[in-house]
From TrEMBL:
Keyword Zinc-finger: no
Biological classification of the source: Bacteria, Pseudomonadati, Bacteroidota, Flavobacteriia, Flavobacteriales
Protein name: alpha-L-rhamnosidase
Family annotation (InterPro entries): 6-hairpin_glycosidase_sf, 6hp_glycosidase-like_sf, Alpha_rhamnosid, Bac_rhamnosid6H, Bac_rhamnosid_C, Bac_rhamnosid_N, Ig-like_fold, Rhamnosid_concanavalin
Region forming the signal peptide: 1-20
Amino acid sequence: MKIKFLTLFITLLSSSFLFAQDVNNRAITVKELRLEYHVNPKGIDVLKPRFSWVLLGEGRGRAQTSYRILVSSSQKALDKNEGDVWDSGKTASNNTNQIVYNGISLTSNRTYFWKVKVWDESSAESNWSQTAHWSMGLLKFSNWKGLFISHDVGYDKTDKYNSLYLPPARYLRKSFTPAKKVKKATAYTTALGLYELRLNGSKVGDDYFAPGWTDYNKRLYYQTYDITESINQGENVIGAVIADGWYAGYIGYGLLVRLDKVREYYGVNPSFMGQIHLEYQDGTTEIIATDRSWKSSQGAIREADILMGEVYDATMENTGWDAPGYNDVSWKKPKVYTYPNGELQVHPGGLVKNTERIRPLKITEPEPGTYVFDMGKNIAGIAELKVQGPKGTKIQLRFGEILKRDGNIQTENLRLARATDTYILKGDGVEVWQPKFTYHGFQYVEVTGFPGKPDLDAITGIVLSSTVNDASTFSSSNAMNNQLYENIKTTQSANFFDIPTDCPQRDERLGWLGDAQTYMRSATYNADVAPFMTKFLVDLDDAQRWYGAYPNFAPFPYSRPAQYSPAWMDAGVIIPYNMYKVYNDTRVLEYMYEGMEKFMEFQADASTDFIRPGGGNNWGDWLSVNETTSHGYVGASFYGFDAKLMAEMAEALGKKEDAAKYKTLFENIKKAFVKKYILDTGYTSEDTQTTYAFALYFDLFPEELAQKGADRLAEKIKKNGFKFSTGFLGTKHVMLVLSQYGYDDLAYKLFKQTEYPSWGYSVENGSTSIWERWNSYTKDEAGNSDLNGKMNSFSHYAFGSVAEWMFLHAAGIDTEDSGYRNIIIKPAISKEMDFINGSYKSINGHISSAWNWKGNKLIMNIEIPVNTRAKVYIPTSNVSNIKEGNKAISKLSEIKILKSNSKETVLEIGSGNYVFSTKI
Ligand code: RAM
């Protein structure tokens, strides 16, 4: 009896164990915890930060019905499930992002620990997530003790247009000895200019180009570094190397066009400010702040300028200057500078990092002693030099994107960016050197002065970027298009450099807004650009002109009047809108709203009867070929688009009256626009490809004429040999509109085109990046043509805006609402491709959409993340013909048939993996 009972007990136990396991398999797991879009950010200053996470779970139709967030002051408390800082309690909500912290007020210099659990669709509770953490920066003025310190290096400015002024870097150091045993040490540092923080002989952190570019008159970002591990119990040395950077150095085309100021747009002398917080084990604290007791000197960096390059004389190194035991008697007292008006804040985006190290493919020697290293792709960054040779040997590095026919690098298109680095050897074994305060756009590195013959180890490509392109994958049956996708990512990486620059190589590198707005949605598919763009919108808001226009680029360091342009200034509305659409971010809309309203007023003021004229510097559909769209048309159509987006954003913010106001404005603009530009035949009055693309995409065509307009666009493209006549603005809109109006086949023809002008033309000419112009280069001209030497960049992301179409249409991944909670899977299925595979890591999780043909059978592989739903468009009217796996869809309760018409069948599905097939 006893034994029987025991067996029964064991059976029960094991079956309940099995059952539990089954439940466990189905349990949702919570991953990718983020705060303000960052993983475990150090030193934030958002007082009500936002949480997000991603859910994983087996099966289909999985969802979150509630969550509970715990925030604790220590890991210990969190482990005991004590939310002593915030316990959200079980909160009925399906939100997994943009969840606003609502606990006690957060304190300077504190670390917080958090975790989250969720309840699923059947109220089953998940495990706690792993612990995440963040720390707060220095939030109050009274927390700051540091002074801005540096020293002057006088110079003669009289010949500013004909000679470069490139001052040496300044070095600052301070020796200190902690009084007691250190529990935690944190550095809060910044500079007007650029700085590298050093501690006990090493660089602190892995940032480049700190503290980033802002309008320094309005704000300056500081960095927070946890330096606990590097602090010694005895002597320590904290140091900083500082250079001009964007603050005091050459920026953009100022020198080229001989602006009144060619450098020093924000200030003359770079200076450093910061402090170290030492928390001792006994609970007491000490602060080591920049002050007059620091020491200041010069060193090996003789010149350092973003555009011009760096000169490093290793014979002038103050060996050991940033480590204990150094004698600094010859160093001077620093000078103290005042920081004028701006705020001291935390960089919302994160700084530039080294995202990849590249070994060169080969070395050529076009002339004796001139070695050209081919890095294999056109990147932004620097070259690390490794060399051994006699003291005083001078090596020069120059950079080019293409080669001339004779094998030498072409530098003409760099214009006045000298882009030259020099290293002078100390002659002390193997020397490895990287510049700190310059960067270049290049595929080729020219090395001269090298002692002996260099091998491939002599140069390493250090790719620098603010973002990592890991949000998507894309492949198709057309190899050229796959290379195009790589080229787009390479160029995005090269230009997402603290701000979205137009190009990384010549004397420009400015945050050009026409480029940025046209590319914004594409950028979101390739990388998580939410933090990067949050920062850039601050720049954009800061750069808004007093009269309401957004400028041509941001930050805007030049003091020129009327610097705005239709389709460039509209970035002030289009970029925030996309932040909302893609990341469900309404906070950024709130931040921008007042400025956007002012911008709308500026436009209203400039308009007559709801037609906004060209005005400002109007570049129209910049770099279009063979067709010109009038500036008036660009101005008027973008005004309509702005009104439409403003209505949607006002709605998202719950501003009902404003939403109605902008809806009415849009209708009025549309009426006026139709009257002026759309003919009864369905043609536009200008009849260019771009005019159709704008009017249709911006919803400015009368409904009854829209299809006719699209037909005319298609006809024009066919007549043009399946080629574009569009520029920066028109191109992507042509693609989007063709797919919207039933011309997927035609869109693929353009996508696959290899004749000029097309993307394929650049790929076939060996490009590894996106060019500024449709015809930037041809193999025949091989870098020798006039065009190649003038305004011509081989790393300009604007034409890469086709990525938007590749994901929205070719792969068919879109969001119906904001933030991909309600997903649309509507691939552009066409016989022009055998297959397309696309995936995208949205803020709500991983989405993938792949389709291929097996004869006449269409197969669609789809993955929808937990807690989201999708509408899937299958291009057949025959519902009974659609299978999922090997079952008819009508047999599967988790698949809802929403509608079916002559064109397509629309299904609704929940999370999970699906394989649909149908005969077409
Ligand atoms: C060029 C820039 C940019 C473009 C403007 C109009 O110099 O490179 O790409 O937006 O001009």
